[in-house]
Amino acid sequence: MNSRAADVVRLLTVKGETLAVAESLTGGLVAADITGIPGASKVFRGSVTAYATDLKHRLLDVDATVLERRGAVDAQVAAEMAAGVRKALGADWGIATTGVAGPDPQDGQPVGTVFVAVDGPVRPDSGSAGGGKVEALRLNGGRAEIRMESVRSVLALLLRELANEHSGNERAQDTERNGGF
User: Fold this and answer.
1) What are the backbone angles phi and psi of residue 96, rounded to the nearest 5°?
2) What pLDDT, in 10s, does the model give residues 23-34?
3) Is the peptide bond before 38 cis (omega within 30 degrees of 0)?
4) DSSP letter for each residue of the chain
5) pLDDT range class, residue 164, cuts 50, 70, 90
6) pLDDT tens for each residue of 118-159
7) What is the mean pLDDT of the chain?
8) Angle CA(132)–CA(58)–CA(156) in degrees, nearest 5?
9) In the CATH scheme, what architecture does the domain 3-177 have?
10) Where does residue 170 fall: left (phi above 0), alpha (psi -120 to 50 degrees), or beta otherwise?
């Protein structure tokens, strides 16, 4: 059992909130981890595996110009995927993965370049700015290791955001963790 996924399901259940997942390089692994946890049906709305670049635009409302200019492996694309799946599936939280698992580079990005994102509710009462956060990852290993570490990383990012919101702390504005690289 994945303890991060179990913690996500537990925290969302306690909060009475829901989650939607948008995946590219992970190909459904994030959704599988979450739905493998008993009680996930209380919080998990669904997922979109938009492996093809055009589906990121059509299904998740990622800006077509961004996709054309920067490619699918990009911080803004990850952020828009998380926001898009959250809106499309009517969830409180959206998370997303996009990147290059290999064996070859993609969109000018080397193997192991991954972006994970979370998009959450705006909560004026908690002092939280709401909105989204993106992390850039540079992962080593083979295809399977990169994909599994991407799953762990996006769930860890969501857990941090849920914990920040739960404690009422302002979200950190670390530019590297917000896509400012």
Assistant:
1) -150, 150
2) 999 999 999 999
3) no
4) --HHHHHHHHHHHHHT--EEEEESTTTTHHHHHHHTSTTGGGTEEEEEE--SHHHHHHHH---HHHHHHH-SSSHHHHHHHHHHHHHHTT-SEEEEEEE--SSS-BTTBPTTEEEEEEEE--BGGGTB--EEEEEEEE--S-HHHHHHHHHHHHHHHHHHHHHHHHHTPPPP--GGGBT--
5) confident
6) 999 976 655 444 578 999 999 999 999 999 999 999 999 999
7) 89
8) 30
9) Alpha-Beta Complex (3.90)
10) beta
Q: Residue 49 and residue 54: Cα distance in Å, rounded?
A: 12
CB 126 within 8 A of CB 98: no
Q: How far is it, in rounded angstroms, from Cα 153 to Cα 9?
A: 16
Tell me the pairing of strands 44-49 and 113-120.
unpaired
